[in-house]
Amino acid sequence: MDHPRLARDIMVTKLVTLTTNTNVFDGIARLLKYNLTGASVIDEHRNYLGVFSERCCISVLMATAHLLASRNVRSPDVPRAKDLMATKLITLTPDMDVFEAIHLLLKNRISGAPVIDKSRQFLGSFSEKTSMTVLLGAAHDQLPTSRVEAFMDKDRSRAIDEEKSLLSIAQMFLDTPYRRLAVLRDGALIGQISRRDVLRASHSMSPLHNEPPRRTGRPARPDECKTSIGERRTGQLYGYFGEDDRPRCGSAQHCSDFSSD
What we know:
Elements: H1 7-10, E1 17-19, H2 24-33, E2 38-42, E3 48-53, H3 54-70, H4 81-84, H5 98-107, E4 112-116, E5 122-127, H6 128-139, E6 159-161, H7 166-175, E7 180-185, E8 188-194, H8 195-205, E9 229-233, E10 236-241, H9 252-256
Parallel strand pairs: 1-2, 6-7
Antiparallel strand pairs: 2-3, 4-5, 7-8, 9-10
Helix pairs in contact: 2-8, 3-7, 3-8, 7-8
């Protein structure tokens, strides 16, 4: 009988990392550059301290927006959902086989996809989290059906209007566990916005992100968000696994240690 796979069998060891002294805007830029949802925070001995995630980044940028507003600093025109949304989407149908849907997510390296009917009416979302429910159920022979509609998330609160502002969308991402929001027009899917879309737009608009570190606020704090899992050996970061269980950097040199500033 095969032994179950362990964390060390699937974890990534070539990592983008941050330190507690990394400026928050530098940390945000690194996540965007390497297309990551989070980075481990380590000390000078590579001891694992926590994770700096997309959600942490959005909270920093929202705090920046409120700070600028309190100082009456004029900001650029705030974009709306229709300006930010992706329109070329991988979509699923309710009658699609769940294992085919999982294959599409893996093939296209996406964490979820909207489910629509023949008239493009939005029905729900099918995500990585849903996929794990399917796989666990299949392992125990407890799948009542293999159709996507039985497993999709039908929560309509994860759909937004195309006129919703960037700051309102960012606040939604802070208030909910969702990583993406469907953009609808008269109930029909016209696009999708992810946390990263909001992060990229907010970061490029912030007048603070190009200023010297001494004026851009505090460093990334590892105790703010703990949304990913690091495996430790005697306290040192040994590897990483989770939603980003594969290196997405351009080269091993950059992945192996990106913690020095």
